[in-house]
Structure formats: structure tokens, C-alpha cells
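User: Some background: our group keeps a shared notebook of sequences we're curious about, and every so often someone picks one and asks for a predicted structure to add to the entry. Today it's my turn. The entry only has the sequence so far, pasted here. Could you supply the structure so I can complete it?
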Amino acid sequence: MTIEIKVPVLPESVADATIATWHVKAGDSVKRDQNLVDIETDKVVLEVVAPADGVMGEIIDEEGATVLGEQVIARLEEGGAAASTSAVKAQPAETSAAATPAAGGKTSDINVPVLPESVADATIATWHVQVGEAVSRDQNLVDIETDKVVLEVVAPADGSISEILADEGATVTAEQVIAKFVEGAGSSASAAQPAAVEESDDNDVLTPSVRRLLAEKGIDASKVKGTGKNGRITKEDVEQYLKADTGSAKPAAAGAAAAESLPTGERTEKRVPMTRLRKTIANRLLEAKNSTAMLTTFNEVNMKPIMDLRKQYQDSFEKRHGIRLGFMSFYVKAVTEALKRFPEVNASIDGDDIVYHNYFDISIAVSTPRGLVTPVLKDTDTLGMAGIEKGIKDLAIKGRDGKLSMADLQGGNFTITNGGVFGSLMSTPIINPPQSAILGMHKIQDRPMAVNGKVEILPMMYLALSYDHRIIDGKESVGFLVTVKEMLEDPTRLLLDV
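Assistant: Of course. Here's the predicted structure to add to the notebook entry:
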């Protein structure tokens, strides 16, 4: 049975797309849900997976071709050997011939993927493999970072990397060759360079980032116990060694300093270029400060009612919904209700117009290993507490693993940032353009408060609302913040809509 492989439905604002990378060729056997091809738009890279086990038949559109939504780009022969035969016949003779000697050590190039039109170049972020290490087909080899998204480059077949041409931190361009790949088993891969792997010292089988770290700290690689694959030393291993044995590391650093005629071993510097994501964050924050009339207003909230409610219903909530009841769902619910009452806070400026949004998409600030990002939780007015908790958890996991797509990051009418998880007691958050306001939550701290003429110790939290004074006046900003305070101090209001 022949199955048509089509371009996915494209977003309304995207007219067409480009075939970025075919991960299979005509005649290849594929498994269900195996990634066949990456299709790139100006916003995101889409993966098209195999709908069933079978053999790739005809590939209609090659890499670089411009395609439309739901266009047929290839055909898959579902099943086994019979389909395989017909697929190979449709394949050019030179391709089928090249597919045969895979076990013999065919060499191919590892290229940077095609970059979006608005992206001039990219940076090698992390190599996940080293020269000579055996890898499986579709295993992630390297992360390449642009100012918008992190791209993964996977192995085209079973084999190994024979040469890395662009180390971590290098700036690369679209389709640039960054490594050489040898197909076949680990033995053929290692045979391509026996001396480099078998007879080298420990320093030669380390990733570039680990080599740099060892050199900066003056540490002998043989003294560090590796916990990575095949005993490989990772950055975490080096950091752990530094913590456990600072006494031995300092003399090495001091010796290096003496060799450079520095006054002491402690007066060292480390210069690291900004990542593309960090550059983008920096530019957007500076843009927000320069292009908005930003002002911050403060209030405080008694968190005892919510903490008592969580304590009472935590177990039953988790049993029913399969997720813990956190504070963020209360924050999101309270903010959504306040946005309904103060539409100016849910609006944005576009030129000389004010755009009022009749939907509620809230950005949640998430700290990731690569920097701060603000994925969007959409249509929060339609979500219950469990739906909000699950949505936030999914976005946080994607952010931690570097799997956030452009669709996850685009849009958003209002932002919530919670510095309290890091211990922040008070801050003035910066607006996330083109939004007009951002709410900062902070650390919950026991403080003495006057209640009905008596002093009580209550868990209090400061709230900070930064807003664009061009569109939001003091009356609306204070009213918005007081509404959030009232909703949180009396959670029943969230249920009764009062």
C-alpha cells in the first residue's frame, strides 16, 4: 500500500515552507514515527514522521525546494520486502549503489541545517559525541544555537564522527560542513583513525568545552573520574572535582599564574562570548527600557488562605488530576480575572493604535540552562486549575530540555514572573514587549502584621506590577493589582466570580 507523505498544515501567517533536511533516502526501511524530513518555515522547523513501518519510495521534493501546506512531497510503501524492491527500482542507480557499501565505511559530511531567512549565522552550542565514538542513526550529534531556537543535527546513519571541523563556540553559516561522518559499525569508524583514538592521551578524547575548562583551571585530566558514556569526562565531572579537591586545584592555578608573572594566583579573568539567546534577551530588555514609559506599583498579599486551601485539598487534587496543586495556578487564575476587569492591561500599542485583546494568553517566565524564556499558556480563561498546572509543567519541562518551539514562545498578552522561587523578596520586573504589563511574584515570608488591632505572624508576599504608562494609568494599574490581591487572599472569589 502506497502512503503519501505530505507537508503539515501551515499556520495562517505562513505562506510556504522549505524542505530543510531529508533524514532518509529512497529505498530506506523506516519505522513508524521515525522522523523522515525537516520542513522549515520562517518561524519554526516542522518534523514529518513515518505514519507506518515501510520503505521509502519516491522522494518528490528535494532539499531546498519550496513547498505549500499539505503538498505531497514523497511516497512511502507500507510493508516489507516487496515494497522495498519497487522503491529501489525508482531510485537512481548511483543512489542505490551508494547505499550498499554502508558497512564498508562510506564517508559523508555533517552540515549546518538551512537557517531561516532572517538568521544570518549560528553558533555551535554543544557537541554530544566525540571523534571515534559509535553513534546510532538519528542520534543527536550537536546542538546549533541561533538567536531564536536551538537546532539539533542528527546522525544520518549508524557510524561515527571521524573529524570535527567546528568546535563549540564557533560561528557557522547555513549548510556549512562542520564534521565528517563515517558510516558503518564502530570498528570501521575507529579504523579511520586508530592512532587518534587508541594511542592518544586523555586530553584528545575530551569535548572542546571540557578541554577548555581543564586548561582554565589547570587540572590534569587523568585525575578526574569520568561519569559520561564509556567513562568520558563531562563538565559536571570537572566541577565536582573542583568542589571536592579545591586544595589540589589551587596550587595548579597558582603555578600557572606564576608562569604568567601575575601578582597572585587568584587574579584571573574568564572571557566568554554571549550566546545568541543571551544577546536576544539583552536586546529585548534594553528595547523595553528605551521604548516604554515603564512604571512599577507594589502591594502585598496574605498567602495564608491559599496555603490552607492547598494543605486541605492537595492529596485529593493530585489523586484526581495526577498533578500537584501549586501556587502558579492561583496566580494565573487571579491574573486572568483581573485582565477581564481591566482590558487596558490586556492591550498593546501598535503605532498610533491601541489593540485590545479579547483572549487571554499569559506568558510564564521560565529559567532555563540557556537563559530566561517566556513560553505562552494560551486561553487561560478556558482552563481549570488542573489544566493550568499541567500546561505550566509541560512548558517548564520543554524549557529545561531545550525543546520549546517557536509556537510555544510567540504571542502572549501579559507576563507572570516568579522570582520568589530563587529567594527574591522585592523586584521591579521589566515589561516583555509588545505587552503592556508584567506581574512579579516574590518570596513568601512570615512577617508580623496588624490584624483587628492585634499582631499576627502571617505568610506575606510582595506583588510588583510594572506597566507602560502610555496606555495604562495609575487608576487601572492599582485597581488591577488590588484585584489580584483580593482574589489571592479570598480564593472563593475565583469560584464565585465576585
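Suggested note for the entry: Residues 81-104, 186-204, 248-260 have pLDDT under 50 and may be disordered. DSSP finds 14 helices and 27 strands in the chain.
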